[in-house]
Backbone:
């Protein structure tokens, strides 16, 4: 199979879908790897490094789309790329379609085979291709929150860890999944008082066992959120409904009860955000203020630490990309239900229920195509 690796064009996105060592493994499997020139530069990988590992360097995204049978991205296709996608071409990347009707309709029109990293799912419910980026985003969320608590950044001037004789900051993490646990670990490591909310008693018992003594796992409810945000210096939204839009957990009205200069970090912004006042931002312009509350809603947080993120992502995606390339998408989905669950749009049909429900579209099970 001819596999194309694109240079990311989303603002301040420096990751790349495959590292040179991954390209070499693909070539050893008998595949041809086309890399758009400069695709790896932001992650510290030169074109020469890819050449040495067997990849062919091409000059443009248009050539990648024209020649490749499978196109690999990190972020979702951008509007400038919609018309380049060919019928029957495999698009393998993060899509987050439930929050993006324009992209969904463009992929339907393309009649391509669109497989989303974020909905590939194991039998136990875990999301293996979302996990590494969730780890990065969870850890980064606290790093960024600590920065934007500084008064020069518009924050209320609280040091999360406190100092001798002074209380530490209060961090509220909503959601006990991969993002939430990693955020809580980082905040605890800084010395903050951390409350983490989840709706699963089993998860809360687990967190009670493994987390440090300055972390307090509590059952999540609207009442608990309303109460805890009044004392929080930082609130991290880490709620995920796989493939679906994130629920709105903090309303505009609730902001008025929070401390002025406190910081909201919405890690769920790719799926529409879990705060009513959230809107996507970029690394160039990451924050804005509503009712005195600083909002950090960068939609590609891991792109800021591209080298770490790219290597973690390739570790996770490469086995799935190889199976699709080795067997073709249909046989790969027959043999591996995890890949079948990643199917979002196939040949003009929406094959992921939550995406179809988000836009009132017809849902067609992927099995119809297998």
Residues:
């Amino acid at each position: 199979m001819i596999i194309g690796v694109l240079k990311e064009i989303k603002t301040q996105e420096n990751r790349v879908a495959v590292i040179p060592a991954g390209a070499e493994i693909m070539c050893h499997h008998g595949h041809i790897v086309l890399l758009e020139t400069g695709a790896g530069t932001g992650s510290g990988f030169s074109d020469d490094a890819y050449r040495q590992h067997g990849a062919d360097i091409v000059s443009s995204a248009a050539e990648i789309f024209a020649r490749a049978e499978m196109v690999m991205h990190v972020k979702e296709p951008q509007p400038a790329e919609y018309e380049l996608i060919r019928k029957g071409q495999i698009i393998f990347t993060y899509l987050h379609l439930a929050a993006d009707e324009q992209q969904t309709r463009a992929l339907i029109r393309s009649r391509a085979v669109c497989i989303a990293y974020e909905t590939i799912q194991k039998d136990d419910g875990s999301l293996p291709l979302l996990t590494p980026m969730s780890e990065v985003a969870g850890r980064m969320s606290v790093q960024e929150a600590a920065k934007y608590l500084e008064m020069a950044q518009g924050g209320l001037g609280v040091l999360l860890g406190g100092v001798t004789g002074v209380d530490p900051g209060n961090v509220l993490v909503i959601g006990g999944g991969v993002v939430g646990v990693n955020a809580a670990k980082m905040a605890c490591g800084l010395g903050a008082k951390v409350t983490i909310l989840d709706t699963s008693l089993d998860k809360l018992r687990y967190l009670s066992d493994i987390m440090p003594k300055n972390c307090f796992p509590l059952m999540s409810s609207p009442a608990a959120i309303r109460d805890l945000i009044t004392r929080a210096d930082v609130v991290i939204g880490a709620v995920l409904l796989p493939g679906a839009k994130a629920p709105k957990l903090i309303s505009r009205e609730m902001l008025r009860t929070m401390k002025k200069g406190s910081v909201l970090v919405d890690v769920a912004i790719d799926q529409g955000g879990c705060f009513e006042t959230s809107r996507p931002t970029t690394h160039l312009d990451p924050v804005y203020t509503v009712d005195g509350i600083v909002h950090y809603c960068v939609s590609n947080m891991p792109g800021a630490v591209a080298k770490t993120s790219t290597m973690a992502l390739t570790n996770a995606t490469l086995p799935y990309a190889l199976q699709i390339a080795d067997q073709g998408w249909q046989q790969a989905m027959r043999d591996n239900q995890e890949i079948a669950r990643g199917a979002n749009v196939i040949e003009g049909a929406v094959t992921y229920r939550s995406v179809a429900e988000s836009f009132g579209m017809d849902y067609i099970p992927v099995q119809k195509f297998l």
Observations:
- The chain has two domains: 2-120+306-369, 131-299.
- The mean pLDDT is 96.
- The chain is about 35% helix and 15% strand.
